[in-house]
Amino acid sequence: MQPASQDVVVAFEVLEHLLRPGALIEGAREALRPGGHVALSTPYHGVSKNVVLSLVAFDRHFAPEGDHIRFFTDGALERLLNANGFAVERIRHFGRFAPLWAGVFLWARKR
After folding, report:
1. With contact defined as beta carbons under 8 Å apart, do 71 and 45 qualify?
2. What is the assigned CATH class of domain 6-110?
3. In this structure, are residues 107 and 94 in contact, taking their beta carbons and an 8 Å threshold?
């Protein structure tokens, strides 16, 4: 793949499994043409949901041997993208109900 040759990079339910999630975002930036977009999804971890998880399912959800390495709030996702040259255009929550959404979808444009 040639650098700056792609219009869209997609990573659904990947970011939370990476030791260095910023490396994925850096790679997406390199792969995208100017004005290209990245589409991401990850499990939702807003403050209210984190409190509920901490009270009723902490050991199971945050298990050291679990599949997820990182947990992202909307703000953490936005900071990660902004720090790597993206402008977040859309953040949407999906699955279940507010404030215990299952996931978050993010759409960002390469600056």
Report:
1. yes
2. alpha beta
3. no
**Number of other CB atoms surrounding residue 72 within 10 Å:** 22
What gap in Å lies between CA 53 and CA 71, rounded to an integer? 12
4 phi-psi bin (left φ>0, alpha ψ -120 to 50, beta other): left
Q: Which residue has the tokens 């219009």?
A: 7
- As a whole number, mean pLDDT of residues 15-43 equals 96
Q: What's CA 106's distance to the chain center, in Å?
A: 7
- β-partners of residue 88 are 108
Residue 95: φ, ψ to 5°: 75, 140
Closest CA to 26 of 43, 9, 14: 9
> Which tens digit of pLDDT belongs to each residue from 54-97?
788 777 777 778 788 888 999 999 999 999 999 999 999 999 88
Model pTM score: 0.86
Query: Quick one: which H or E segment has residue 77?
Result: helix 74-83
